[in-house]
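Progress narrative, work stream C.
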Amino acid sequence: MIGRATALLFALACVAVTLPASAAGPSATTTANVPRLPDTLTRESARDLLSHLSDAEVRALLLEQLDRAAAPVSKPGPSKGGMGEMAGMAGVVDQHAGSMRDRYTTLFDALLALPTTLRDAAIRITQPSGGLLLLGFIAVVLAAGAIVELLYRYALRGYRTRLEHAPGATFSARAFQLSLELLFDVGALAVFGIAAIVAFFALWPGDELRRIVVLNVLFVVVGVRTTALLARFLLSSTPARPRLLPLADAPARILRRSVIGLFAISGFGLALLFILRAAGAPDEASDVLGIAFWFVGLVLILWTVWSVRKPIADLIRGDRRGAVVGWIADLWPVAATAYFVTLLLGGVFNLLAGTPITSGVGLASVLLVIALPVVDMAFCRALAAGVESRRARADFSPGDALVAFEPIFRRVIHIVVVVVGLLLIARLWDLDLFAFAQLSLGGRIAGSLVSISIVVLATYMLWEILRTAIDRRLVAEGPQNDDVPATRLRTVLPILRATMFVTIVVMAAMSILAGLGVNIVPLIAGAGVVGVAIGFGSQSLVRDIVSGAFFLMDDAFRLGEYIEVGDAKGRVEKINLRSVFLRHHRGPINILPYGEIKRLRNTSRDWQVHVLEFRMPYETSMLQVKKIVKQVSDELSADEDYASDILQPVKSVGVMSMNDDGVLVRVKFTARPNNNQWVIRRVAYDKIIRAFRNAGLRFATRQVAVIGPDGQTVASGAAALAIESIANAARKKGASGAGAGE
């Protein structure tokens, strides 16, 4: 409704400006104005023009055409040498300054004569039937379009009502809903325009100037309504309805009304200028009106910029806290003000200098600069909505492709939007970027600028894709736990990532040098010679790298596994291209080059058998031992803390060997190779010892048996006394022998 009302008001204003101020006849000053020939002159239009001109106007028009056909009088140039050469540049500046002063005088006179010019144009438009007939013709055309549009909306009222009362829950659903509403509105506007054109052709006024007025009014109405539809699509006018751009109600309303008003001013101004030129008004009058419309548009733009500076600054910052982004967010209204003021001053200067003006370039650049962030934001929000919907699903996996590659897709969107925006802006302003680069960087670099940019962009994107794919796979492998050995992929992928990075950087550097015209064949040959020299001079290094590659291909060890290499052992903490780092369980770290590994023992792969040994007396019942071990095995298997890591239960192997003090009984079990296996081993030892003690079984101990003279075994206490007495007698005998010797 706002767009239709605004369009109707400006249409009426456009017609009202062109109507005469009074019903009186033409003013006496009409003969002072030289009539303007139409751009396309035919016999019919020439006769029609002469029928509306007086004798004085025909004479003025003839004199103007004769003056243009006359040869220009050549002016004597400055004399060669002396002051003529010194004053060359000053003369050029003075000549241009003089022409600008003359142009300013002409425009000022046109400003003073503007009311008369508008009144004369209105008289030409309304003659001979008057202005009421023209207003009625415009009203009939607009009414015909409005009636057909109302019928269209009435026929689709049910679909529109259901669409408005079914808001989408996600961003994609809301965007689709608003797109359908925009499609309905565009259809209504198209029906309005077609019906109005049909009514125009049905009535078809006989005067060409009136047809031009009616068509311009119709175009202004359609243009303003189209702008209102787009503004409503991006910035919904209803507070309860979701809008695509994340703005509050107040700034959204200001932006929406300002955009509609700016386009209404521009459309009204262009239509009025076109009508005045068609009515024979001088170019100076059109230039004066153009400057006036520029000033009005500038005031509206600057008011809008400073009214919404804070919400736009918040959008620019987003969730980023960088210093550069902060400066841009704080200074964007100042930069926008300087840009628009510069555009206005440049347009005025071009008018004064008589330079042809490329119409719409400045406004198109502004619209492009505004549209690019909107497009970028829309794509990024759609991507974020897709990611959130994936995460909300019940079968969501952290390795989902869209979720994992979201940062890459976001960077691709930013890069594509920026590149396309720069190319479009350069195209609007007729800037040759390659010629500009050639002036500053040199011909060869400028000629290769595109290929170098493509190589850099392709290298960056390839590395981001590979890095994200590897990181995604590492995430799918699960978090790295110190107690659990890593998988083979988690061990190999970091090395593969580093290798790919070096390879991509080298290839990109070679491609850039080739793009610059550098012959890279000698570089490749030199690199090969250097590689051969390094291979001969550092054979141990080559042996370490090659051996490490084969160790990794054979899957000999992984991160987190406990391995033994000679007298060095420990958990694999780090792997690089040349060596492996082993962290001993007491803390020291061993660094082993791959080439020095002759034999490797991995104690963390698949399973491990643990053997428990007990020394028992000869009189111990092995059947009782087996029953006790079976009871302990059942207890461990029933314990949920240990059952999952026991692959084969604890069982008695039986007597393995005999010696002087008893027999060696062995118990074993098979467990998974993790830290829990040592806990199971300790618990099994503790339970078996306690069970033996409770059953009255004792362990064999080393002891001394003394056999008496009668062949009987002497008790341990008596044996000790006997041994002590023998030792005392020996000491006494030794002491007496020493005294006799003296």
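Work stream C, second folded protein:
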Amino acid sequence: MTQEPKSRPRFLVPLAIIAASLALRFIPAWIAPFTMLHFMSLGFAPILGLLGILIWWTFARRVSWRDRLLGVGAGILALVLVVLVADKSLIFALMSEAIPLALLLLGIALLLTRSWDWKKRRWLLASCVAIGLLPWTAFRVTGQRGDLGFEVLPRWGKTAEAHFLDARRASGTADSAHREKGSLVGVPSTWPGFRGPSRDGIVRGVTFATDWQANPPRERWRHAVGPAWSSFAVAGGLAFTQEQRGEDEVVVAYALDDGREVWVHASKERFEEPQGGPGPRATPAYDDGRIYALGANGTLTGLDAATGEKLWSRSLQEDVKAPLPPWGFSSSPLVAGRAVIVFAGAAGNQGLVAYDRDTGDQLWTAGQGMLSYGSPMPARIGGVPQVLILSDFGIEAFKPEDGTPLWQHEWLMPQMPRLTMPLLLADERTVMLPTGFGRGTRSIAVQASNGTFSSATNWESLAFKPYFNDAVCHKDHCYGFDGNIFACIDAQTGRRSWKGGRYGNGQVVLLADMDTLLVISDEGEVVLVAADPSGLREIARIKALQGKTWNHPVVADGVLLVRNAEETACYEVSARR
């Protein structure tokens, strides 16, 4: 039983298994990016390939039983040891990256060593597997790119957050609950929170120079920040955002004139997950001298906007037993009248939760949605103010004062979240539901009659499939990301007008008075693009930030604010065109 076989093992079968596994792993990313097929291929294809090789080896009749048992045992032992030794953040990367690399090396070795003596060959094959797996134990994952590839760092290396904290300690800077006194009560805001006043990503009443070669935006200030995917609220000469600073989750106010830190409110909370990394996901909301911020662990806090003093706080996990999403709570609070509304995704018609803006007392709960990365959106349909939420259920609308349901449109996505905001067209009755994971976009018409609402589908299109990137609408056309390529579709028909902007997984706002789109790429480039359905036309671009950039840009009070998980910058935009 322990003697070597006289004939060499045949390797056409393992080569076929390896080729099929690699094809299943990489082809869906090309032909169906950001669909369920793509996501499933990342983990299942490598595992199936590995199992296929182990099964083939177990029953390879031309290989001695000794080699079969040793090979299977060594392979399983190596995989278990790598999993045990590797940083916990690396587990999914081992499946989607390390195993395919090991299989690829194994396949190449099989092809190049066909004439080798078996004793030499088996050690080479074992070495290929080891080379594909073992080096990964020296790294950790700090996040994923928009294309679902992994960002890695040596386990002994320092993250951008660690460098940021070291610099603060070295400079003697300390977080404080509040530093300055005063009041912003009665002070209006041109940009009160996530995606602007109407949460539609549209900047109105603003024009500026677009010849950035002759008259580029002037950098007013720039500095490092703690990680978060938050954007800004702007009011009273301050820019409010959220960050992670070690074990503290903070809300911070920066002065628009020079970027100095005016106040910081810190709470002992930290959230981190492999895809997005550490930090808050939501954007603070400003309203009449107050700031409302939702942390990634579900803590909603009301603060004095002038001083950072805490007024109240509530926990979604405690109040409505909302489960912590794998990506963290990401709903940017919406202030509507006396209600501060957030998406909680709790069972028992507790998709949305509203709190009293002054006291933090719970006002109402409503909604069937359980999974959403999006935020509540204000709307006026049929003359009636309402709050919209897009989730795994579809879209629902409620009265902001008491949560009374007004209408709903069911478009189920079982066990999958919706990641973007709905789009409300200028006619105030057409609502578009952009949906990732290959589902496309649906347009619905909402009719109002004697206080009763109904909805019906206008069209459904696969020509527009945003992943987590929000879109904007302008003059009956919508602009945004179809997967990770910028595109334009006709809002009346759903037909694609053009596609071609290569800005990764970025974000966009519309400069409506300029018929211009301001796009920030996921590599930190700011690009001006004509809002023109006849074709893609770039007007100007600058490199604004370094590092992965998923945060929404802000244009308000004469400046452009951009940030990512590492740094923030403020640019002056000239009023000249």
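The longest strand covers residues 440-449. No further action is required on this item.
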